Amino acid sequence: MEKPQIEQQVGSAPEDLVILDIIVGEGAEARPGGEVEVHYVGADFETGEEFDSSWDRGETSQFPLNGLIAGWQEGIPGMKVGGRRQLTIPPEAAYGPEGSGHPLSGRTLVFIIDLISA
């Protein structure tokens, strides 16, 4: 697979987590609180500006889901290895409201995540 491009989003930002399967995987299923290995790219919903990408670092990222933002904790379980999923995450499920001390606070975020292993 190659690095996905996040298209400029249209319309107003959703108030709830939006999960969209781009490719449905056929491997092991990610479990709530489980360990996952992913390739991902993240962009700002309004500006389309990319703020993070494991692809650009040239390596996958591995972490326990329970250490991640709520949008990932809710949006990755049920995904199967080999799958590609887009998550559109409102601020409450990402880095909190504006002024919460994170550079992405108050922003709706769009991630495209490839599940490598679960």
What does this structure look like?
The chain is mainly β. The chain has a single domain (18-117), classed as Chitinase A, domain 3 (Roll). The chain has two helices and six strands. The protein has helices at 54-57, 70-75; strands spanning 18-23, 35-44, 50-53, 61-64, 84-89, 109-117. A hairpin with a 5-residue loop joins β2 and β3. 30% of the residues are buried. The model has no long low-confidence stretch (mean pLDDT 96).
CATH architecture: Roll
State the CATH topology.
Chitinase A, domain 3
Domains counted in the coordinates: how many? 1
| Beta-strand percentage range | 25-35%
Average pLDDT, all residues: 96
What is the CA-atom radius of gyration, in angstroms?
13 Å
Largest sheet entry = 6 strands, antiparallel
Please provide the count of β strands. 6
CATH C-level name: Alpha Beta
- In whole angstroms, the N-to-C terminal distance is 18 Å
Output the structural class. mainly beta
How many alpha or pi helices?
2
Low-confidence stretches: none
Summarize the helix and strand pattern as letters.
EEEHEHEE
What overall geometry do the principal axes of the alpha carbons give? Answer: globular
State the helicity in percent bands. Answer: under 10%
Layout of helices and strands, plus pairs?
Layout lengths: L17 E6 L11 E10 L5 E4 H4 L3 E4 L5 H6 L8 E6 L19 E9 L1
Antiparallel strand pairs: 1-5, 2-3, 2-4, 2-6, 5-6
Q: How would you sum up this structure in a few lines?
A:
By secondary structure, the chain is mainly beta. 8% of the residues lie in helices and 33% in strands. Strands 1, 2, 3, 4, 5 and 6 form a six-stranded antiparallel β-sheet that branches.
